[in-house]
Amino acid sequence: MTSDLDTTAAPAAAAAATGGTAAPRRRGLRRIAAVAMVAGPGLVAANAGNDAAGIATYAGAGSQFTYGTLFFMVLVTVALVMVQEMAVRLGAHTGKGLGALIREQFSLRLTALAVGCLLLANTGLVVSEFAGIGAAFELLGVPKWAVVPPAAVLLWSLVLFGSYKWAERIFLVMSLAFFAYPVAMVLGHPHWGDVGAHLVVPHVQPSKAFVLLAVALIGTTVSPYMQFYAAAGVVDRGAKPEDYKLIRADAVLGAVFACVISLTIIIATASAIGGSGPLQSAAQAAEALRPVAGQGAELLFAFGLIGASALAGAVVPLSASYAIGEAAGVERSVSRSFRDAPLFLGVFTAQIALGAAVALTPVNVIQLLIGTQVLQGLISPVVLVYLLVLTNRRSVLGAAANGPRYRIAATAVVVGVAAMSTVLLVQTVLGWFGIG
Question: pTM value?
Fold first, then answer.
């Protein structure tokens, strides 16, 4: 080490001669490489939200309200960044998942409430993922009964036999087909003045349809399973407090990336079929990709939908399995065998089987996909309250607990999400009595 310090004059002079840019460039490349290497639970959890139900919801927002939901999505993006950051911070600094922390910090009844809400939301979501896989293959002329059962067996096998991490990367690559949406947005020639105005100026319609879709946007973007999966994923990979900065970068970048794609889906769909009303089919949703793929729009859409649905089809049931395993205090890891982690893998297996079975029934796929996101949106405030309370407690996080400003901002997020869910519930109840 001493000799290295004694011979720094020549390199320093060389660096000065070249403008001193080499070292900063190398440091920048190392930072990029470090972020790329740590990319994992945060990126996967956030982008799993751009699944079949997510695409249907975002495309539905564009087809029904054109650019009217863009400002709302900006607010939802901020919310997702904060929520995902809190989830991975808990995992990194405590070494425990969200389910385990809830079990330790709350009563048995409140723990059961949290896990029950997650199971209820996830059951519908797993159904929607297999429905999305079926809808994608139907665009290719293959009936869903021929692909949904094999897809269920494949996803189950990948997780059970320890090869899911490789499959996860394959599904992520397939999901990159949705990178076509930013291109489609530009080629669709949207009215950029209207886009800009709706991004910065609030636009709200006092109709039940708008509130319903707004809650669905919350549900598909800030889904309860994302927080459970992100925290558990950080713990499962053995992350430590000193890894937190890179873990936070993964969570924040993943959330922003996912929401940017979501915004482009809304804009591209608004440019293609905006004002045509609610979506009726997957083929109609694929119209937004026509500026990019032409006659191959349905093929490109189907390819991305398969990857996104398969990714979420594993992530969603795994999040519930993690939560239940943590709450019960039993073994939970994708690296364990069925004998070592029977409850963890048993819950996963049951969700896969139920989801595939229901997806084979004759249902309106688009209504199912958006409906599951509404359910997610209604349940999100419950899970977010647990997350907020845990990250506020110094007894849990010590110096890493939420500071005063962050606490205020996070509370505003939870209250905002809860307010939207409450408005929808009130509207729904009034509708039962023919009021409103």
Answer: 0.81
